[in-house]
Amino acid sequence: MKYQRLLIFLASIGLTISSIGCLVPGSTQTVIQPPAQSSIPAPIPQQIEAIAALPSFADLTDTVKHSVVSIDTETVITRRYIQRTVQGAGSGWIIDKSGLIVTNNHVIEGARSISVELENGKTYTPVSVKTDPASDIAVLKIDAGTLPALKVGDASKLRVGDWVLAVGNALGMGISVKDGIVSRLGVSIQTSPTESYSDLIETNAAINPGNSGGPLVNLDGEVIGITSLKLATGGVEGMGYAISIADALPVIQKLSE
């Protein structure tokens, strides 16, 4: 009867006898039951190796960020005879050590003033601004001595699933880095009834206002795209787009002449 009351008491407070050991009648000895084996399988060696092989982007970031710039603009907008000044932010990257900087046309379009800030905090006003609205590409020239330029990569070698980094002045808060992969290639996007983009690189790297004009780089630190737009429809995430450097380079070369 004594043991029966003990078992009832233990059951009433939700304890499992086998999990804490059970009392053997007529003895003070406790028999310990081993815990049940976990149903979660242990990682296999290949899985452990795959986890260990995930890259660190620290060294790559240290190399690339010195060649990415923040672009701040002031644009005067007139509506119903009222003028107001709008502050804008974007990104760019150094393509030539002489001070040539690539960005999107829509970053600086219509701007009354343009300011380029290097990674070291120094600020410059462009001495030359050339644009191609059709391709949404612009090339700025600043006089800042010799600058670290980024290498241009071969976008034709990209594969869906390749790692990429989007580097830029997100939200106007300074240069930051977002990682992702190539999600699709050769994408076409209709941005208005009369305008569209084609041959875009889609990535799930986070693209935010201010990233426009910044570089999309591969793991070798080479520019393979120019971050340009994202889908901002409610419920849509991880769908940002970059102009392929293969399409942008001929325009950049022409604007650099």
Tell me what the structure shows:
With 257 residues, this protein is an alpha+beta fold. The protein folds into two domains: 64-141, Trypsin-like serine proteases (Thrombin, subunit H, Beta Barrel), CATH 2.40.10.10; 151-255, Trypsin-like serine proteases (Thrombin, subunit H, Beta Barrel), CATH 2.40.10. Helices cover 18% and strands 39% of the residues. A hairpin with a 3-residue loop joins β4 (82-96) and β5. The radius of gyration is 29 Å and the shape is globular.
What's the helix and strand layout?
Layout: H1 2-12, H2 17-20, E1 22-23, E2 30-31, H3 45-52, H4 58-64, E3 68-79, E4 82-96, E5 100-103, H5 105-108, E6 113-117, E7 123-124, E8 128-132, E9 137-141, E10 151-152, E11 163-168, E12 176-190, E13 196-203, E14 215-217, E15 222-230, E16 240-244, H6 245-255
Parallel strand pairs: 10-15
Antiparallel strand pairs: 1-2, 3-4, 3-6, 4-5, 5-9, 6-7, 8-9, 11-12, 11-14, 12-13, 13-16, 14-15, 15-16
